[in-house]
Amino acid sequence: MTDLHFYTNPMSRGRIARWMLEELGEAYETHVVPYGPEMKGEAYRRINPMGKVPAIRHGETVVTECAAICAYLADTFPQAHLAPDQRARGDYYRWMFFAAGPLEAAVTNRSLQVEVPPERRGMVGYGSFETVMDTLETALTGRQFIAGDTFSAADVYVGSHVGWGLQFSTIEKRPAFEAYFAGLAARPGYQKARALDDAAAAAMQKASD
Hints:
Elements: E1 4-8, H1 14-24, E2 29-32, H2 37-40, H3 42-45, E3 55-58, E4 61-64, H4 66-76, H5 86-111, H6 129-140, H7 153-168, H8 175-185, H9 188-208
Parallel strand pairs: 1-2
Antiparallel strand pairs: 1-3, 3-4
Helix pairs in contact: 1-4, 1-7, 1-9, 4-7, 5-6, 5-7, 7-8
């Protein structure tokens, strides 16, 4: 038995949390939550009132939102060494929450064809899509990891955004982005998490046919 429970759908941001869990190396139980009535139902909304995945339950503690899940797991299981030491902790928090805030907002608005007028850019947290891409490129150029010299939970989160963006062309295919994600995608934890989610997605599709 494990007291670490993972609520997800393989066609969701739950893939980020799955990767984090596989890097962690701890036993966990997966609960696949289908979209629709079950995800919006009373039982699951006791876990996440937003009615969305992913979420984790660790004992009596429930954590939602991918960046928070990554940060919580890194701090709660320090033996995995997924939170950097104090020298790199500023970059760790800075870029994890840059991805959760400006990067996600800029990419989402671009995907929805929402253009912020230049005179209103001061009202949004990211300014412009171009500024976000340039800032991310500067952060990743010449670096294997986003915070210090070792892989961390911030790489799981930032790397997931970069990988997803490259796959679906929601971020620009710049050499710094491609080189950064190529290194992360070779990790065994990423490979195992992807295989598990791909298998779960295939099983769901087969069940619906």
